[in-house]
Each structure stands twice: as C-alpha cells, then as structure tokens.
Amino acid sequence: MGYDNLTAVVTEYTDTILQVAQQFKQLLQSTQNQQKQMVDLSIVKKGFDNLTAVVNANTDKIHECKDQQKQLPAGTNKQEKAIPHECADINFIKDGVFLIYPSGAKRPKYAYCVLQDNRKWTVIQRRSGFSLSFWQRWHVYREGFGDANGEHWLGNEYIHAISINGQHRARFILEKDGIKRYADYSNFRVEDEPSKYLLKVFGYSGTAGDSLNGDNSSKIANGQKFSTYEQDNDNYSGNCAQRYRGGWWYNSCYYASLNNHYGHNKIDWGLNMGLKLDKSMLCVIFSCDLCISKSKRGTNHCKHISSGDKKE
Ligand SMILES: [Ca+2]
C-alpha cells in the first residue's frame, strides 16, 4: 500500500469517525432533550397531583358544608335577606296570612298581608263582626291575640319591632254604613315596652280626619303611652282602659279609640263630625315607606303614593 493509498484510507475512516461522532452527538442531544422532557413531564405530573389534592380537599369541604346545611332547620338555610321582617318583604300576589320575622322580636308571627296602592301592608288590627274581645290584659296586648285571618291585634311587641325598622306609614280604614274613609299617617312608630309602647304618629292625609292628633291636647293619642285596664298609663284621673274596656294609647281619654269594647262605647274616630264606627271591617295597616335597611328590603314597593292613587 502506498502513502497515497494509506492517506486515502485514513481520510475515509476519519470522515466515518466524524460522521459517527456527529450522529452520536445528535443522539446525545436527542437523549438529553427527551430526558429534559421527562423532567418537565414529572413537574407537570407533580403539579397535577397537587391540583388534584386541592380539588379533592375542597370537594370534601363542599360535601361537608352540604351535609351541615341539610341538618339546619327548614327555612334557615336561606340568606338573611330572604327572611321577611314584614309583609313588605314578601312576594305575594293575593292578600292573605304569611309568617313574618320582625327584627328584634323573639318569635315569628303570622300576619295578614294586604296589597293596596302598589304597597304591601302588614295588618296590625282588624275588627269586623265584633266577636273578639279587645278587653285584654297588658301581656296579651303585648303578644297579640285573635286570628290573623279575622279579628285580631298583631301585638305591641311586633308593632314596635316593625315600626322602628325604617319609616312606616299607617293607614286606618274606617267604615260606616257602607262608606269607607281612611286616615293615612306618613310616620307611625311605637316605642319599646320599657317606654310603655309610646306612640309617635304624624303626617296625616285622608278623608276620615286626623283623630290621633287634634286641637285638644288632653285627648290626642300621639305621644301617649299604651294602657290596659291593669296598667293605667293615661293622663286621666280614672282609668280610661277600664272605662272603655280596651287597650289603647289613651290620653284623657281620646278622640279616636279603635279598641273600645263593642256594645259599650264601640269604636270612635272622633274629629270627622262625630264619625263613629259601629260595624264592619276595620283595618289598621302600615307598610314600609322609606326603607333604610342594608338589605334593600322592599325598595320596589316603598315609593310614595302618587296623588292619583285611589283608596279603597
Ligand atoms: Ca289614669
């Protein structure tokens, strides 16, 4: 073999070695990439495992919460804003009896709810037929008596609780000889029991006369404490509640008294030329007027009455 031939062989082998080396380098690169990808996959898998653990843990919590929710008494697994404090908070399309939960009251209460003039009213008193005696003791007036479907007094504690939760409007519907009259008060509020359920009422409008106020300061109910026959909080030397057999915000004694005993002095709403009611339906109702609660309760039906609204 000559030198030239030997050089040719070496060159050939050298090229081959270089080619093999290049191939090995590429293979090594490929292997490293695959290894890197495997590492990356392991990171992804680790992350996925963590995520799965988090999801599982939260799923357990969700099931736990659902189980706890099932154990709650009926009606308590709703949001606070869904609890009706008064009729204004209830979505009803027909007048009737509903359970309300006045703020601060110890127990819920059945109340008769009325739709009128685009408002939702809570009935606090109703007298028709006069089969129910309103000659009751203090604690009976406090808790309420009668049937919400018929004659009843909602209860001073509930009237108080409702009336202080935002500004309330009162409507007294009076009827005599088939003719209805009404007295509206834009502000109606009853203080708490330690204040003897003191009445604050003003802003009159209507057709029956402002008989809870008036010119004779010794007879107006506004500003008076509630009295029953065994709790005389009136300004009379005697006992108005005993005399007229009812519980009321007697002064000395009254222009208007809607709880008088039927058959004795009946019902009086006095300023409107001696309007005396001796029969049929009497409702004292009030509704949320300017709601100040954070839950936006009753905002849809707390707008002011327009001048064109027709009274029943
Ligand atoms: Ca007295």
From TrEMBL:
Entry superkingdom: Eukaryota
- Database matches in InterPro entries: Fibrinogen-like_C, Fibrinogen_a/b/g_C_1, Fibrinogen_a/b/g_C_dom, Fibrinogen_C-term_domain
Q: What does UniProt give as GO cellular component?
A: extracellular space
Q: Which SMART domains match?
A: FBG
Among SUPFAM superfamilies, the record links this protein to: Fibrinogen C-terminal domain-like
Where the record annotates domain Fibrinogen C-terminal, the positions are 78-286
Q: What is this protein called?
A: Fibrinogen-like protein 1,Ficolin-1,Ficolin-2
Q: Which organism is it from?
A: Mytilus coruscus
